[in-house]
Protein backbone atom coordinates (compact mmCIF):
# COMPACT_ATOMS: atom_id res chain seq x y z
CA UNK A 1 0.00 0.00 0.00
CA UNK A 2 2.88 2.38 0.70
CA UNK A 3 3.98 2.39 -2.94
CA UNK A 4 0.42 3.19 -4.11
CA UNK A 5 -0.40 6.05 -1.71
CA UNK A 6 2.59 8.36 -1.62
CA UNK A 7 3.38 11.42 0.45
CA UNK A 8 2.83 13.61 -2.61
CA UNK A 9 -0.65 12.18 -3.06
CA UNK A 10 -1.50 12.74 0.61
CA UNK A 11 -0.22 16.32 0.45
CA UNK A 12 -2.23 17.01 -2.72
CA UNK A 13 -5.40 15.59 -1.12
CA UNK A 14 -4.81 17.71 1.99
CA UNK A 15 -4.18 20.97 0.12
CA UNK A 16 -6.85 20.30 -2.51
CA UNK A 17 -9.44 19.54 0.17
CA UNK A 18 -8.43 22.59 2.16
CA UNK A 19 -8.74 24.89 -0.85
CA UNK A 20 -12.10 23.34 -1.76
CA UNK A 21 -13.60 23.85 1.71
CA UNK A 22 -12.18 27.36 2.05
CA UNK A 23 -13.80 28.30 -1.27
CA UNK A 24 -17.06 26.64 -0.18
CA UNK A 25 -16.98 28.57 3.11
CA UNK A 26 -16.34 31.87 1.32
CA UNK A 27 -19.09 31.20 -1.20
CA UNK A 28 -21.63 30.46 1.54
CA UNK A 29 -20.51 33.53 3.49
CA UNK A 30 -20.96 35.85 0.51
CA UNK A 31 -24.34 34.28 -0.27
CA UNK A 32 -25.47 34.91 3.31
CA UNK A 33 -24.25 38.51 3.21
CA UNK A 34 -26.16 39.02 -0.05
CA UNK A 35 -29.41 37.42 1.19
CA UNK A 36 -29.70 38.80 4.73
CA UNK A 37 -30.64 42.39 3.78
CA UNK A 38 -33.60 41.04 1.81
CA UNK A 39 -34.93 39.33 4.95
CA UNK A 40 -34.40 42.25 7.34
CA UNK A 41 -37.41 44.16 8.58
CA UNK A 42 -35.90 46.11 11.46
CA UNK A 43 -37.21 49.33 9.96
CA UNK A 44 -40.68 48.13 11.02
CA UNK A 45 -39.79 48.29 14.73
CA UNK A 46 -41.98 50.92 16.36
CA UNK A 47 -42.10 52.17 19.94
CA UNK A 48 -45.08 49.89 20.51
CA UNK A 49 -43.20 46.81 19.22
CA UNK A 50 -40.25 47.66 21.48
CA UNK A 51 -42.61 48.10 24.43
CA UNK A 52 -44.22 44.72 23.66
CA UNK A 53 -40.76 43.10 23.64
CA UNK A 54 -40.08 44.65 27.05
CA UNK A 55 -43.36 43.26 28.40
CA UNK A 56 -42.46 39.86 26.88
CA UNK A 57 -39.17 39.91 28.80
CA UNK A 58 -40.56 41.30 32.08
CA UNK A 59 -43.21 38.58 32.27
CA UNK A 60 -40.77 35.84 31.24
CA UNK A 61 -43.01 34.59 28.44
CA UNK A 62 -40.08 32.67 26.98
CA UNK A 63 -40.00 30.61 30.17
CA UNK A 64 -43.05 28.73 28.83
CA UNK A 65 -43.37 29.66 25.15
CA UNK A 66 -40.95 29.43 22.26
CA UNK A 67 -40.53 32.31 19.86
CA UNK A 68 -39.20 31.41 16.42
CA UNK A 69 -37.91 28.14 17.85
CA UNK A 70 -36.09 29.64 20.85
CA UNK A 71 -37.32 29.21 24.40
CA UNK A 72 -39.26 26.63 26.38
CA UNK A 73 -41.58 24.07 24.85
CA UNK A 74 -44.10 24.00 27.69
CA UNK A 75 -46.61 26.17 25.83
CA UNK A 76 -47.25 26.82 22.12
CA UNK A 77 -44.88 28.53 19.70
CA UNK A 78 -45.74 32.22 19.38
CA UNK A 79 -43.73 33.19 16.30
CA UNK A 80 -46.77 32.61 14.12
CA UNK A 81 -49.60 33.18 16.64
CA UNK A 82 -50.79 36.26 14.76
CA UNK A 83 -51.38 34.15 11.65
CA UNK A 84 -52.95 31.33 13.68
CA UNK A 85 -55.45 33.77 15.16
CA UNK A 86 -56.56 34.99 11.74
CA UNK A 87 -54.27 38.04 11.51
CA UNK A 88 -56.14 39.65 14.39
CA UNK A 89 -54.51 41.50 17.27
CA UNK A 90 -57.93 41.64 18.94
CA UNK A 91 -58.04 37.82 19.07
CA UNK A 92 -54.62 37.70 20.75
CA UNK A 93 -55.66 40.37 23.25
CA UNK A 94 -58.93 38.55 23.93
CA UNK A 95 -57.11 35.28 24.55
CA UNK A 96 -54.67 36.85 27.02
CA UNK A 97 -57.49 38.66 28.83
CA UNK A 98 -59.58 35.48 29.11
CA UNK A 99 -56.99 33.57 31.13
CA UNK A 100 -58.32 32.45 34.50
CA UNK A 101 -56.94 34.06 37.62
CA UNK A 102 -56.18 30.78 39.38
CA UNK A 103 -55.57 28.52 36.39
CA UNK A 104 -57.37 25.28 35.68
CA UNK A 105 -56.98 22.53 38.26
CA UNK A 106 -54.89 19.58 37.03
CA UNK A 107 -54.01 21.26 33.76
CA UNK A 108 -51.24 23.50 32.60
CA UNK A 109 -52.57 26.90 31.74
CA UNK A 110 -51.36 30.42 31.16
CA UNK A 111 -51.59 32.64 34.22
CA UNK A 112 -53.46 35.93 34.25
CA UNK A 113 -50.88 38.71 34.12
CA UNK A 114 -53.43 41.54 34.57
CA UNK A 115 -51.88 43.63 31.81
CA UNK A 116 -53.28 47.06 31.00
CA UNK A 117 -54.93 47.77 27.65
CA UNK A 118 -51.78 49.58 26.52
CA UNK A 119 -49.60 46.60 27.49
CA UNK A 120 -51.95 44.15 25.79
CA UNK A 121 -51.88 46.17 22.60
CA UNK A 122 -48.07 46.39 22.76
CA UNK A 123 -47.61 42.63 23.25
CA UNK A 124 -50.04 41.95 20.39
CA UNK A 125 -48.10 44.37 18.18
CA UNK A 126 -44.85 42.60 19.10
CA UNK A 127 -46.33 39.20 18.24
CA UNK A 128 -47.63 40.64 14.95
CA UNK A 129 -44.11 41.90 14.19
CA UNK A 130 -42.54 38.51 14.92
CA UNK A 131 -45.00 36.81 12.59
CA UNK A 132 -43.65 38.99 9.77
CA UNK A 133 -40.08 37.71 10.17
CA UNK A 134 -39.00 35.80 7.06
CA UNK A 135 -38.31 32.34 8.48
CA UNK A 136 -38.28 30.66 5.06
CA UNK A 137 -41.61 28.98 5.88
CA UNK A 138 -40.48 27.55 9.20
CA UNK A 139 -42.26 26.01 11.06
CA UNK A 140 -43.70 24.03 8.16
CA UNK A 141 -47.23 24.06 9.55
CA UNK A 142 -49.34 26.81 11.09
CA UNK A 143 -49.54 25.05 14.47
CA UNK A 144 -45.82 25.55 15.10
CATH class categorisation of the largest domain:
Mainly Alpha
Using DSSP, what is the number of strands?
2
Amount of beta strand: under 5%
Strand order of the largest sheet: 1-2
Ranges with pLDDT <50 over ≥5 residues?
A: none
| Count of folded domains | 2
Please state the CA-atom Rg, rounded to the nearest Å.
24 Å
The number of helical runs is 5
Please identify, by name, the CATH architecture of the largest domain.
Orthogonal Bundle
Kindly state the percentage of residues in helix: 40-55%
Mean pLDDT across all residues, rounded? 89
Write the layout of secondary structure elements.
Blueprint: H1 7-39, H2 47-58, E1 66-67, E2 70-71, H3 81-84, H4 89-97, H5 117-131
Antiparallel strand pairs: 1-2
Provide a quick synopsis of the model:
By secondary structure, the protein is mainly alpha-helical.
Polypeptide structure, described:
By secondary structure, the protein is mainly alpha-helical. The chain folds into two domains: 1-39; 42-144, Cytochrome Bc1 Complex, Chain D, domain 2, CATH 1.10.760.10. The chain has helices at 7-39, 47-58, 81-84, 89-97, 117-131; strands at 66-67, 70-71. It has a two-stranded antiparallel sheet. It is elongated and about 80 Å long.
What brief labels describe this structure?
144 residues, mainly alpha, Cytochrome Bc1 Complex, Chain D, domain 2, 5 helices, 51% helix, elongated
Amino acid sequence: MSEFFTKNMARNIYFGGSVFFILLFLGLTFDTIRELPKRDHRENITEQVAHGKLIWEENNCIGCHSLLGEGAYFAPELGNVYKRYGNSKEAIIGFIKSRPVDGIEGRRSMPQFNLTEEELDAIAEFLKWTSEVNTENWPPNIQG
